[in-house]
Amino acid sequence: MEYMIWSGAALSLAGLATLMWCIVKVWRARKAGLSDDDLRAVVQRIVPLNTGALFLSVIGLMMVVVGILLG
Fold first, then answer.
1. Measured torsion, CA atoms of residues 8, 10, 15, 21, in degrees rounded to the nearest 10
2. What is the pTM of this model?
């Protein structure tokens, strides 16, 4: 079950990196002084990616927990 722990940790790290990228992307858009509609468009493009990254992190953490419990 060691492979499950390490692959889960890798998935969690990939999800965390993507979450950080989403935060930076929206932060830069806010600092750019975009209009309300442009900022809303940027955030609407980022939300599905943000949700997917969160899902990826959760799946990875679940794999780690299951790997520890079964190992």
1. 170
2. 0.86
